[in-house]
Specification:
The chain has about 100 residues and is α+β, with helices and mostly antiparallel strands. The protein has 2 helices and 5 strands; from the N terminus they run αβββββα. Strands 3-4-5 form a 3-stranded antiparallel beta sheet, sandwiched between helices.
Length: about 100
């Protein structure tokens, strides 16, 4: 439980999973400020839990409501599931860098 709470309180990035287009089975994120892509988000992190300090992959799905987000699901993810989350997050971070690069130069 502590890992879930910590992730919700300290996550640096949230992946906008509401940007998934089922028709092409791909995430479409052209404008990271578009409100509709933020109706569903995913958080993820790797935690080392006592007593054996083994790494555990945590994923949390949130759904946006009028007054904030609610937790839909939180679980200990399999390695392949967590790697897919990390790949999606890397792609999203690249989109953010490209999007905000306009304002940096």
């Amino acid at each position: 439980l502590a890992a879930y709470v910590d992730l919700i309180q300290t996550a640096e990035y949230a992946f906008p999973s509401g940007a998934y287009n089922a028709d092409i089975m791909k995430y479409e994120i052209e404008d990271p400020l578009k409100v509709s892509i933020w109706r569903k988000v995913q958080l993820g992190g790797r935690y080392y839990l006592e007593p054996d300090e083994m790494p555990v992959n945590i994923l949390i799905n949130l759904t946006g409501k009028r007054d904030g987000y609610i937790v839909e699901k939180c679980w200990i993810a399999q390695e392949e599931e967590f790697l897919a989350f990390e790949e999606n997050l890397k792609e999203f971070q690249k989109i953010l860098r490209n999007y905000y690069n306009v304002f940096v130069e």
